[in-house]
Design goal:
The chain is α+β, with helices and mostly antiparallel strands. The chain contains 3 helices and 3 strands; from the N terminus they run ααβββα.
Length: 126
């Protein structure tokens, strides 16, 4: 998902860009020329809370980018109820931390890390 060889150049600005308005965007051009729908997620209700909206296995590269001290973050999901039964969090050079709920992550991870995880996963699954 985050490996560079999975990406390819879609479009490149031409000399005509000097005639574009300063707020013209390559993203708008791409959306218009490729008939792509744009989805917007409202995270306003989550602004003052450090909780994950989605529970999933996060790529190690994303965890490393957001907080290099995290060795792993794993969720134990009950296969019958699809409810999270627990969380395993391990920082490098530390013992594993067992949590009973993802809500408890805010005591161990920064708000930037939690929000970064939520936004990144939401962007991928939209």
């Amino acid at each position: 998902m985050f490996e560079r060889e999975n990406y390819h150049l879609v479009s490149e600005r031409s000399e005509m860009s000097e005639y574009l308005a300063p707020d013209a965007s390559m993203v708008v051009h791409f959306l218009n020329t490729n008939n792509v729908d744009l989805y917007v997620s409202d995270y306003l209700n989550y602004t003052n809370y450090n909780i994950l909206k989605l529970i999933t296995d996060f790529p190690e590269e994303l965890l490393e980018y957001l907080d290099p001290s995290i060795e792993y973050l794993r969720f134990e999901i009950n296969s019958n109820t699809r409810i999270c039964d627990g969380v395993r969090l391990k920082f490098k050079h530390s013992k594993e931390i067992l949590l009973s709920s993802p809500d408890q992550l805010e005591a161990y991870l920064s708000s930037g890390t939690i929000k970064g995880l939520g936004v990144s996963v939401s962007a991928v699954i939209q």
